[in-house]
UniProtKB/TrEMBL annotation:
Pfam families: ZnuA. GO terms for cellular component: cell envelope. Its main location: other. Transmembrane segments: none annotated. This is ABC transporter substrate-binding protein. SUPFAM superfamilies: Helical backbone' metal receptor (SSF53807). GO terms for molecular function: metal ion binding. One of its GO terms (biological process) is metal ion transport.
């Protein structure tokens, strides 16, 4: 188990109900588990593109989009490593230096990767998810002021960096990757277009499950030990009932006050929360305390993870299984 949290926040530990809350990191391997998916140059109608992806949440998506025409190296392919604290190796930096395209998350989630690109010297093309999302939102804002207000906070500056949990953002970033691949290898543009179409088809069950959740989620609420699942919960139409003090403390990398934890427990026991979202890739007594309170109150617990568990190779199956958990918790799967 590793520390996986919002804004480089360690797992939370409660010493006692009246004691000061302290921070405790999860144990785990320090191996990045770097992986490379090789292109099939003989089947590629154009030049093979060398791509380096910072984190696994985007790695499998880029592999699918690249198909036979992209060598894709994912630097942090193991769920045992916290992207915020990672120190790139010489080999990692060399990979970015040799890359034609770098795919990053941004929003300070993988700042080490942005630094590596900046010092690479070879000036690879870059798709940064947070930047792509920010640009799209600015475009919406030009003609849809109300929409822009509704999305406030989802660009740079205090943004929840777990962008892969937004179905809209995932599709936007995928389109940006396909565009860059096609620019780098024009003769393979049709291949990349075919790969994008196939990937969209593979994504459809996830989108369908999310759509079916909307009716079950109408008028329902959730609370979360971390904001990992926030974008998906919003897309499903759930109302966030996480006490504001707890949510703000978690977002600001600080310990929640004992009163904030107590307010969270009260919300669970008083029926203000329909489901608790719990990140199982963190450990600490506060999340565990809240989970125990939810279980005691009969509030269903949905386990999510910040990155795909080791051994789970498909982004779609990872996300789909979590949505199905949520559906069952809300009674939609019964």
């Amino acid at each position: 188990m590793r520390r996986l949290d919002l804004y480089r926040r360690p797992a939370l530990t409660a010493l006692a109900a009246t004691a000061t809350l302290t921070l405790a990191a999860c144990g785990g391997s320090t191996s990045a588990g770097t992986t490379t998916s090789e292109a099939d140059a003989a089947s590629c109608p154009g030049e093979v593109v060398d791509v380096v992806v910072s984190v696994s949440q985007w790695g499998e998506i880029v592999e699918q989009l690249g198909g036979d025409c992209a060598n894709v190296t994912t630097v942090l392919a193991s769920s045992a490593v916290d992207p915020h604290d990672y120190e790139p190796t010489t080999a990692d930096i060399a990979a970015f230096s040799d890359a034609d395209l770098a795919v990053l998350n941004g929003a300070d989630y993988d700042h080490w990767a942005a630094d590596a690109v900046a010092t690479a010297g070879s000036d690879p093309a870059v798709v940064e998810a947070a930047e792509v999302v920010s640009i799209e939102e600015e475009a919406h804002a030009e003609g849809e002021e109300e929409h822009a207000e509704g999305e406030e906070g989802h660009g740079h500056g205090g943004v929840n960096p777990h962008l892969w949990y937004s179905p809209e953002y995932v599709q936007t970033v995928a389109a940006a990757v396909t565009e860059q691949l096609s620019e780098l290898s024009p003769d393979a543009a049709d291949h990349f277009a075919e790969r994008a179409e196939a990937w969209e088809s593979d994504l459809q069950p996830y989108l369908d499950e999310l759509e079916s959740l909307r009716s079950a989620a109408a008028g329902r609420s959730y609370a979360a030990t971390e904001s990992v699942f926030q974008y998906t919960a919003e897309a499903a139409g759930l109302t966030d009932a996480t006490p504001e003090g707890y949510r703000d403390a978690a977002s600001n990398e600080t310990d929640p006050a004992p009163g904030d934890v107590a307010a969270f427990e009260t919300a669970l026991t008083d029926g203000e929360v329909d489901v608790l979202v719990y990140n199982s890739q963190t450990e600490g007594s506060v999340p565990e305390q809240l989970r125990a309170a939810a279980e005691a109150a009969g509030v269903p617990v949905v386990e999510v993870t910040e990155s795909a568990p080791d051994g789970e190779s498909s982004f779609v199956s990872w996300q789909l299984s979590q949505l199905q958990q949520l559906s069952n918790a809300l009674g939609g799967g019964q």
